[in-house]
Structure formats: structure tokens, C-alpha cells
Amino acid sequence: MLFAASALVLFSCAKEKSPAPELGAPMRFAVTVEGDTKASMTSADLNQFYLKVTGPNNAFSFFDTIVKEGETWKASSKRLLWKDEKSSITYAAASYGALGADYFNIPVTNDLFTSGATMGLLTDQGTQEKLNAADLLTMKGTTLAFADTDDGIVPVTLKHGLAKANFKLTLAPEYFDNGVGLEASPITGLALSGVHTSFFFSPLTGEVSIPNGASKGAVIPFQSSYEPGTEAAKPALAVAEAILVPEAFAAGALTLYFTVAGKDFTWTNSTPLTFEQGGEYTIPVSVACDAAPAPTAYTLAESTVGMIVGTDGKAYAAADKDNLPSGVTAVAMVACKSGSNGLAIQLNGNPVEKEWDEAKTYAEGLSAVTGGTWRLPSKADWQNMLMGCAVSGDASASDEMNPIAGFKAKIAATGITWKSVYYWSSTESEMGAWSVLVSLGDSNAAAYFDFHSTSRELNVLGCLAF
Q1: Cα within 13 Å of Cα(445), Cβ side
Q2: d(CA 41, CA 128)
Q3: Inter-residue contact 210 to 225 (CB < 8 Å)
Q4: pLDDT per residue over 133-187, tens digit each?
Q5: Which of 163, 217, 358, 393 is the most exposed place for a label (fewest CB within 10 A)?
Q6: Can you point out the beta strands (E) in 76-136?
Q7: Confidence of residue 291 (pLDDT cuts 50, 70, 90)
């Protein structure tokens, strides 16, 4: 028989009107996805769908998978034919997401296509591919006569059978000020709860409904885009997309969970929402920032005694030590100033132990800080740093006669635990090299200078001169 086996061919370009088909001429199809602006399945994404054709009799009635090979659409096993130029057909089509026949391991058969079935919504939609896989395309049963076609071509226009939600998350300007999300999105852990995760689909009618007693669950949306803030427009913008079962939500029924820079957030709909079949909805979500304001940064020349010096070469108030810009850590504390120059002592709760020659090399090799130079502090450097912190009001009234109390108070403000041990200086003596013991314990603060053999291992702290 002529209709025993062959291939289905799609001609995408316009053709001159051909003569009426001879008996058993093959059908041709023009396939599109309605709403190509929807950022899930589009005409370009579509590579297969199911088609059911009911013709004048059983010999011209078919059910088959239609697959795309290059720019050509082909039936996988049947030959789809017009009976003659007077014939009519009724046809319906559906695409069960990008996974096609493997969608939740449910075989799509002629019986399932005819009667419909309960299906599961793909809940992990965290990538573009998974979002496409969750989409459902449908074309309900349509009657078409050959005489009403353009050159005998059967149009297949698939529509989105579920709903689409686009959550538009706007980050407060403070995130930009605090250096959060300047390049990549800081939003993680997206999850949307309170949605139905199963639906009943009838391909012949194209209708989607929620089965009686269906339970609710959660889906993982796809974060499709992110626009960092700028100095001119500080709020950053992220968009998270999800394919959902069409349904109505009472106020408070839908919850979006997400994390920004380590802090957990939840958003809940404050008003009722209705997602209709084939609809696409944009939902604004404002993300507040309760973090402390970004600390003021000063150049080293502008710094004052007691300020901390960051790895970025800037000086910050000691009170901002836990709120430094992203990637910046405190490395020193300004201990004395003279005009625009000064000395800062390395902040290190666990100083290393070195022989004297190695101590100088170690201090000079500390990680570079713009605007300053590391060295092993001389005996005079130590005296200047200890005395430079002795400012009225730095210590309690009972300690004001003890100049080391100011150094103690300012070191304590940095949060560093000081070790009361001997530290090397770079100044040599007749007996070796000078060292200093700075005691900042609970009793009176005090400093003692002594000298040790240069072959002895003592603790080392660098001095940043600027």
C-alpha cells in the first residue's frame, strides 16, 4: 500500500499553490510555539511533539511522535497522508517538555493521549534545560479540510499549557554600598513552596486541572538573569523563573525562600494571586538590607591613632572591624602619627618565632599594603608606637599616669588577643639585639626593654611605616 511507510516532511518556505493531492499524498506541517517571548520552551527549543490525527477512516488516522531533524520534521514510524483533496481531519498535538516521551517515565501512548493522565510537575527547574523540561505545550483538537489549507500544509500551533511566574528580586542599595553582588548574583537557595506538583492533562481538549486530593510541595526556580547595581543605579536586579500548575493562591499561601550573602529571607504573597493556564506573571520582591552601613575608608595619611589598616591600604575605625568591605581584612593598627606619616603595628594574635636575622627578613616580606612599607620595628619605633597611643581618655583615670594603658585600650578595641611575650626590635646592642616585653594583662600595663642573643628565637611583629 502507498501509505505503508515513508517520512513526514516540513517545508518552512512559501511555495506556489500545488495541484490537489493525489490519493494518499503525504501531509506537510508548519510548526510554531505561540508566545516565543516566554523564556522557556520556544520554537527554537522544540525538537519533538506528539500528534494524533483522525481522518475519514482508520486507514487515514494516526498517532505518532514527530521529531525534528535539522529543519525537517519527520514522523518516527507512521506515514501521515491526506486521503484526497475533499477529505478533512481532526488533529491535536502536545509536547511534554524538553524530555518528551521520557517525561517522568510515563510512556505517551495513543490511549494516554486520548484519555489524558495525571502527571507530575518537574520540581527541580534550577537550569534553563530543566525549566524547558517542566514546560508543557498543547494544541487542542482542531478540524481542518484540505480545501482550507495553504498548499495542503497543516498548521500546528502549540500553546503553553501551564503557567509561568517570574519573580523580580530587587536588592536594596545598601548591598551595593557594602560591596555585595557587584559582579555575580549573591542570591542562592531559591525555593518556592505551597504549589501543587501534579496535574491532570487532557491532550484532546488542551485542558489542565488539579486532581482531587492532590498534595502541595515546592519547586526550585531558575535564576535566569542578574544585573549588578552601579554607582548611578545601586539596586541590583535578579529574575527567578518557575513553571507552575495553573491555580489560585490565597494571601499567605505562596512562599519564596532565598539567601543573600549568607542571610536567609522569605517572601510571602500579601494579596491573592491567580495563575491561569498559558499565563505569564511578573511578581516584584524587594530585598531589604539590615547590614551595617559600609565603613568610611581613609587613606593612611588621613588616618588617626587607633584606626585599623586593611589589606586594601585604607584605614578604618576599629569599631568597623567586623564590617569591612568584601575581601578586606585588618592587618595593622595605627599606633603613632606625625603629620601625614606614621607607624602601624601588625595585628597578629599568634606571632611567629624567629631568630633575629630571620625576623627582619620575615617582617620585610609581609604582604604589600599600598602606601606603606613593612619592616621589623626598631627600638625607637617600639617606643614611638607605645607612647603614641598615650592620649588622654584612652584609659581609665587610675591608669592615666601609665602611658602603656593607651596602647592596651586601642589594641583591645581591634579585637586582637595580645600575647605578653618578648618581641624583636631591629636595633642591635653589645649583647645581641634589643627586644621588648609589652604586658597588657589585667594588672597595670607595662613595657620592658631587654636584649637577647640574635640566635635566640623570639616573637616577631612587623611595623608598617607610611
Answers
A1: 26
A2: 9
A3: no
A4: 899 999 999 999 998 988 888 999 999 999 999 999 999 999 998 889 999 999 9
A5: 393
A6: 88-95, 117-120
A7: low
The answer on pLDDT for 111 being more than 50 is: yes
Distances (CA, A) of 88 to 55, 142, 307, 366, 370: 7, 10, 86, 85, 81
pLDDT at position 93 over 90: yes
Closest CA to 439 of 421, 415, 458: 421
Q: Give the orientation angle of helix 379-388 with respect to helix 404-413, to 10 degrees.
A: 80
What's the rounded Cα separation, in Å, for the pair 148 and 151? 9
Q: Which of 148, 154, 132 is nearest to 38 (CA)?
A: 132
Distance CA 258, CA 272 (A): 21
Q: Fill in the amino acid letter for 211.
A: P
User: What per-residue confidence (pLDDT) applies to 100?
Assistant: 46
pLDDT digits (tens, 9 = 90+) for 401-429: 466 888 888 988 998 888 889 999 999 98
> Which residue matches cell numbers 518556592?
192
Phi-psi category of 347—alpha, beta or left, where left has phi over 0 and alpha has psi -120 to 50?
beta
pTM summary value: 0.60
> Nearest-CA neighbor of 306 among 286, 278, 334, 283?
334
> Residue 197 is which amino acid?
T
Question: Are 93 and 32 a contacting pair, CB within 8 Å?
Answer: no
Rounded distance between C-alpha atoms, residue 103 and residue 96, angstroms? 6
3-class SS string, 286-321: EECCCCCCCCCCECHHHCCCCCEEECCCCEECHHHC
Largest CA distance in the chain: 118
114-120: average pLDDT: 89
In angstroms, rounded to a whole number, what is the distance separating the alpha carbons of residues 136 and 198? 13
79 CB neighbour count, 10 Å cutoff: 18
CB 270 within 8 A of CB 251: yes
Which residue's entry shows cell 618581641? Answer: 423
CB 307 within 8 A of CB 324: no
Residue 296 banded pLDDT, cuts 50, 70, 90: confident
